[in-house]
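Progress narrative, Year 2. Work on PTS sugar transporter subunit IIC from Marinilactibacillus psychrotolerans advanced from sequence curation to structure prediction during this period.
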Amino acid sequence: MSKKESYTFKDYTNKVLAGTAGAIVIGLIANAILGGIFKALIPYGSIFGTLAMVVSTMQFLTPVLVGVLVAMQFNLNPMESVIVGSATFLGSGAYDATDAGIMLVGIGDLVNVMLISGIAVYAVRALQGKLGSLNLILLPIIVGAGVGTIGLLTLPYVSLVTASIGNVINSFTQLQPLLMTLLISIAFSVLIISPISTVAIGIAIGITGLGAGAAAIGITACTAVLVIGSRKVNESGTTLAILLGAMKMMMPNLVRHPQIVIPVIANAVLSAFGAYILNIQGVPETAGFGIVGLVGPIQAANMGTSILLVAIAYFVIPFVGAIVIDLLFTKVLNLYDHEIFKFVTTDN
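Result:
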């Protein structure tokens, strides 16, 4: 019998991040690309309503996908991988139990999703070869139901992380408008490549007006930096995925190369000035999206800003800024090279 490979805490962290990054792209990209289009086409045919429902529902599978892809990072077999996916979903917070039955409410708390996927993998590996002929019966119970229950118990405490960050960001709204715009833009630009949900925070704190606009602009600023950096070292499909909304696939890069926040914050500051001067507005439901599905720009236009000014704030300033910052930081100041933007799907 071959010796089981041992992993350090760092190995677990990197592999969980890598699996999560891939799962987020798979789970969210269909709705990010097609959701808005299908919704707009509903008046022209009922099939588009069905298609919109399908791509939207696909997002709810994200916790399962995280669990399965994290398990695959550790070379678990198909059955073990599916059980890890089940445990991850059960502990994700992606559903509510109501009198009417189970109701899906989102993709869950991503921090808890990552925590439970790691625990589930650890449990499966610890039990390998110890359950004998009862493996098929006991593994789903011990890991699927057992670790899933642990996830529900940790969820309220892990969710406090998101709530605490939301409270800090909410305090920014009490500041002078320009300072508020700068701080909110910076905060959301960094959060979008972290496990924290920008959409959840935007809705939870009820951020609106210029604050919501600044949040969306900050996310856009990060998107622009990632796109410009990614195109140098990644395949075009990876860069396109980032542009279309898969910024969180860069979470492993944030851990491996923390200096990635330098250009992100710089562009968030630059773009925030544009948002302030052009008075870009938003609502809680659009604060966490940036340019994904054109949600932010459309909302800003609906709230009175001209389409030209919206285009300048959401596309011209962030992307031109990202190009200038990229040249300045990589060619002039030599603060980093483009390898920090390299998307790696495995840590083997």
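The chain has two domains: 9-161, 173-341. Strands lie at 95-98, 101-104.
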